[in-house]
């Protein structure tokens, strides 16, 4: 109940609680949660326990772009380490998960895989991912290359 979530968050914040709401990736809902005093948001990647990953990448990216100063944690729905990597590459500050590890055949091995995935995603974000393009373009400059490699 997103409407009830905003009301509950507001009441709890007024009573001195720090509220980190689990919510959908809806920008209007997230902005309302911020407006009532939430300092961190935890939008889902997919419904809790599904392992479906980042179902609405467009809205998740938009949240990150529109709320650059709010810590964002992808909470719920992740099923594989690569989905955690994608979350951090998109600029999310963290992921919160349980089911993907708890239901793995080897939970300790899976936990390590997620740790490495999060580290990789964060490093990729900090490294400055290239911007995707629709057309091919050479990444190697032609100045200074041997004549037999240059186009005529």
Query: Which structural class should the secondary elements be placed in?
Result: mainly alpha
The proportion of residues in beta strands is 5-15%
Individual helix count = 6
Low-confidence stretches: none
Number of strands: 4
Radius of gyration using CA atoms only: 20 Å
* Biggest sheet features: 2 strands, parallel
Shape label: globular
Query: How helical, in percent, are the residues?
Result: 40-55%
Topology:
Elements: H1 2-14, E1 22-23, H2 27-35, E2 42-43, H3 57-66, E3 73-75, H4 81-89, E4 94-96, H5 99-102, H6 107-127
Parallel strand pairs: 1-2, 3-4
Describe this structure in words.
The chain is mainly alpha-helical. 43% of the residues lie in helices and 7% in strands. It is built from six helices and four strands, in the order H-E-H-E-H-E-H-E-H-H. The protein has a two-stranded parallel sheet with strand order 1-2. Helix 2 links the parallel strand 1 (22-23) and strand 2 (42-43). The longest helix is centred in the last third of the chain and has 21 residues, at 107-127. The termini are far apart.
